[in-house]
Request: fold
Amino acid sequence: MRCRSLLMLVLVAGPLGAEQPAAADPARLTIDRIFASDDFKAERVPAVKWLDGGAYTTLQPRKQPKGWADIVRVDAASGKAEVLVAAESLVPAGEKEPLAVHGYALSKDLDVALVYTNSARVWRQNTRGDYWTFQRSTGTLAKLGGDAKPATLQFAKLSPDGTRVGYVRDNNLYAEPVGGGPAVRLTTDGSEQVINGTFDWVYEEEFGCRDGWRWSPDGKAVAYWQLDTRGVKTFTLVDSTQGSYPVLKTFAYPKTGERNSACRVGVVPAAGGETKWVDVPGDTRTDFYIPRVEWAGSARELLLQRVNRLQNAVDVMLADVHTGKLKTVLTERDGAWVDVNDDACEWVENGAALTWVSERDGWRHLYFASRDGATVRRVTRGAFDVIKVLHADEKAGQVYFIASPENATQHYLYRAALDGSGTPERLTPANQPGWHDYDVAPDGALAVHTYSSFGTPPRVELVSLPDHKVVRTLVTNDKLREAIAKLARTPAQFIRADIGGGVELDGWLMRPVNFDPAKKYPVIFHVYGEPADQSVVDRWGGDRYLWHLMLTQHGYAVACLDNRGTPVPRGREWRKAAYRRVGTIASEDQSAAVRHLLKQRPYLDPARVGVWGWSGGGSLTLNLMFRHPDLYRTGVAIAPVPDQKLYDTIYQERYMGLPQANAADYERGSPITHAAGLKGNLLLVHGTGDDNCHYQGSELLVNKLIELNKPFTLMGYPNRSHSVNEGKNTTRHLHALFTRYFAENLPSGPR
Reply:
């Protein structure tokens, strides 16, 4: 094993690694310009919270004093703002500065503001903090939580009538008057192992579950999840950076094939009392999950999704909150897996039907399922995927959704008739190719529209619907656009790579600056390749795009491909091709596509092919380096999972099945199985505090490579998480490390 000293090198025009001159060339990128300056800082629109009647609220920062902000109501059409809560109103007694608003909510009458501040990170997001209320009618500012320690409350929400606030504290649920005062403790059994109103690690990471409780529509009850981690095997992270002795952090983490937390859903009176548990059949520790629960349009019933352990069956159920009994409204089955439904599940037809997205006919489409479970009617149809449902406008008889029937790398707004008639109509203007996101107002008349494309920063506008006319421009990013326009760059290309059998992969290719097609250039492939994310997208890529562009300024081509099994809107068959073949199909597709591109584009040097990736992309980098050593000469793998058996139950079993039944598939897909194939230059990077893809996996791979007498380079970032971004200068240092490793092992420039 080789260990290299990690001296920071700043990169400019000329040979990779040359030192930066005093005056930076605006046409050239450096590590410092990208990761340690504001040269390419994007403007952002503060979050918009839509109100009825063509208005919204937002947090409006002040120019002075710096850091102060008001909560304002904005008339969407005119842009006229009315201050609802001035920053001065949020100055606690005895303090000089207002609360830093990390989030807020308003009562329906806009009289009560619930302010989230002093937030702290829990795993991936800041979901723990302090909560205060401000009553506009009385001018009263009050802190919630009584004697709770700082930054220990979670997921506070105003009751529907605006008189109380519910929250989670130390894994128990409480309800407290908005003005502060004695709180009602709704649960009493919360502990480190019994979790009420929030979730364990694996539910949070893989189902996106964080806020685990819901006010009933009438405010008289609270529905909540309870997870019991007792009996779940634990994992321990070791932090050796805090003092003379290590600090241990232990948490429940079920690895593939192991027991999960017990999960149940209950309803408790908001005034306190006994919880009524929903009678969901089966054993959540071994048989199924409950990833989604919402009130079913009234205070009488809950709607929940029950997913079996293999995640190839979903039952959508209505639960009577008084009896706890269930009835099934809809069932979804698939030979591979079924995705948890997030962007539908809205009641329509006066509560008689539920919206549902399914790919049961081979494409993702919107359906209406009757409340009595008798019928399921398809709303959209055709050989395309509904990527996301945005708004069902029953009055107009239309549904708005995101789709891209002709180009899977892009996103556009469409609408279709709710009765299923006619052909979907594209509303996004034809002269705006790229990626479009929309936040649609409750009445469907307006939307916040964000538009970008590859290499072009986002523009944010308020548009009217369905005519898509610009009402107001919210963000132009003109300063960033000007900085990008000055950079030396060759236009990127979106490509298709033929891998045989009638299969083509989408990709993009960034050619070197000062490109000469008569010469040969090294090429670095950025990979991910797993079912959790799409990589080849025609949208602004931020710092990662800029880093790739910097590589092209130093004589590299940079490319990216989406193999089968990635969540690309190309139909069920494409996406589900990864079932029981994670790691395997990606390696086959990526290597075949690279060989095709090398033949098709003789300016790409087959002797200088590199690859890099993070997380699942780190795993794929290892697989490519080990399985195809004749093709990939240098690789950088960040935070990989070298052995799939070491990852969590929910993610890995969804795509691979149970290891007890599919041991051969797990072994075949795991990079560590193929480590003997390594011939090229490998840099393995991992944060030792990674709670997601554990450093343990990289240590086991290191042992295997030592056993096989394979040279490689290892960089461990002490106590950094999966994102490897904690601590001063870490992000800059990390990218300089990547850059230097490629410079030293994959020579740049034309030949």
In short: Confidence is low (pLDDT under 50) at residues 1-15, 17-22. The chain has eleven helices and 43 strands. The two ends are 31 Å apart (CA to CA).
